[in-house]
Amino acid sequence: MMICAPVITIDGPSGSGKGTLCQAMSQELKWNILDSGAIYRILALLVLHHQVDINSEKAIMPLAGNLDVQFLFQNGDLKVMLKRVDISIKIRSQIVSDLASRLAVLPRVREILLNFQRSFRKLPGLIADGRDMGTVVFPDTSLKIFLDANLEARTYRRMLQLQKNGVSVNFNELLFQMEKRDERDCNRSVAPLILRDDVLIINSTHIPKQKVTEIALDYVRTKLT
Ligand code: DC
Q: Is 168 within a domain?
């Protein structure tokens, strides 16, 4: 009999702290990680690199069907590897962020990425973060978290993350871009970011990250026992 690995899904808007929570839980539980946003970002990087027409879904599809991606911990940081090359910082640029959100509305591209994302489901378990992890990619799991925070807090966190990577940004410009991306992620016709009633909602606006991790781990442990 095949044993299906358990999955914790963490959905929510950009900058809500999904990545941080996902990494903290993965280190605690020793489960695998899927950063699905990184997959859309990698696709954007490849589209830019190969100068593919971003208006042609047909031209983008072969790139989506041929990805070699790994998520690895190195000195406590999660590294995103494409064909064994560390592209963790490259995929966080503004141009990549914006293009990733445009590519994420393409239905056939999303369809191709479904099986690829599901291939990360391996024992002892997977923690998957994104927008549609609990609704579309792993709807069968009962361990679903929705992490939220207000736009200002999310923009501030994203600004600090970019600064850490050596990129200086204007807060108001970034806030405007995040708002535009939120709108695209929530209003697209395929797999939009939506809140269902089968999830644990955590609003991290005024809660320190250690507390968020504690709440999430308590929820998972209670469900698993
Ligand atoms: O979480 P992030 O900012 O790294 O995601 C990058 C883009 O990819 C974002 O605009 C939303 C999109 N995305 C998506 O549509 N579905 C997912 N499961 C994850 C990300």
A: yes
